[in-house]
Amino acid sequence: MNEHVDDLAELYALGSLEDLDRARVERHTSSCAACAERVSEAEESVTRIAELQTMHEAPPGLRTRLHSSLASAHLRHAWVRTIPAAIAAALVLALIPTWVAVDRTRTVAAMHQDEQALAKIASAPFARAQFMSPRNAPMDAKVLYGMHGDWYYVVVMHPKPGMQVAYVHEGKMEMLGTVAMHGASGTLYLPVNHKMEELALVSDGAVIGDAHLAY
Amino acid sequence: MASAGIRPGAAEERTLAQAFARREDWAFDEAYRRYGTLLYSVALNVLHNVQDAEDCVHDALVRVWRNPKTFAADRGSVRAFLTVVVRNDAISRLRASARRGRLAERLGREDEPAEEFEIDDFVQQRKLRAAIEELPQEQRQPVLLAYFGGKTHVEIAKELAEPLGTVKSRISLGLRKLGAALKEGRP
Description:
The structure holds two protein chains of two kinds.
Chain A: H1 8-14, H2 19-29, H3 33-51, H4 60-82, H5 85-95, H6 98-101, H7 108-123, E1 126-132, E2 138-146, E3 152-157, E4 164-169, E5 172-178, E6 180-182, E7 185-190, E8 198-203, E9 206-212
Antiparallel strand pairs in A: 1-2, 2-3, 3-7, 4-5, 4-8, 6-7, 8-9
Chain B: H1 10-21, H2 25-47, H3 50-66, H4 78-99, H5 104-109, H6 122-134, H7 137-147, H8 153-160, H9 164-183
């Protein structure tokens, strides 16, 4: 989305956009301060309405669950740093493509995601599927996924900035997240807890490839 | 019924936003302490199911925290950002479920958005009702369908038999008026 978001700012904040348009607004506002400010004002308006609705105490288990999810990533991060480098390298190289393992430009958050994926790959049965272009040519992109449909790990070579992964279901697309860039490669870990039969790669609002997953 | 959580001052909010953008661990804990009740309530008020609401808040917060590009310190308040992230996630879940046919009955009920208010807190609800009633009918209806009905602007245009551009403009203007009225404490 190159044009400014204009009225879409309020629609975005109200949740009245389809997932694809919502992703476009998010992408545009990440680089346009004026639109980010308008979206921010719309978010404030929606929050003021939300604050006047009935409040419900969050269940105590939610905080624990959040801590557990975030702490586990930290622990795995620490574990990967402390095991002997040779063992770590062998394990990583055996399980995920070399270009992911040796890249040194990853952000901490992306590293946490990659470590989560690595832990899943090492501990549970998984399968992989190839992304194919619209002309049915294999792309430099794959998805590794748990056989129970509880996690998905998309790896892409030379992704375009802002490339997204979508779930294709009954002719509709549900945007799942943006591929994190790591130099020449990109990854996205999705702890989505349902079996997805088709994933698509979306760039600049267009589907550039898809993968069919079997369980 | 719980309170809406602690509302910090502007300086506190800026400090939290900067720390949240830098992914400092304390900022996540502090944001949840301040806004956990609000976020869970937002999800529950959309999904009407405690387990779905808990899953929604959990997944949305974990996703935000693990993606450093989602929030910049100059992006606005953490409170409003997280509220909309959680609410949009909840609406996406509702739509996905509806697509699978499981929540068709619930969406059907939401065809009458003006009747969907919960009047547990009379004073606050009265304030919201009054602010909504100040809107011209042509803006009130699409805003209600969007906020309380969880409908897309395309669905609203179809339901009201109005051009898409007209509906977008009316929703946009209506929300801005509503936000300004609630900010000023009117009426």
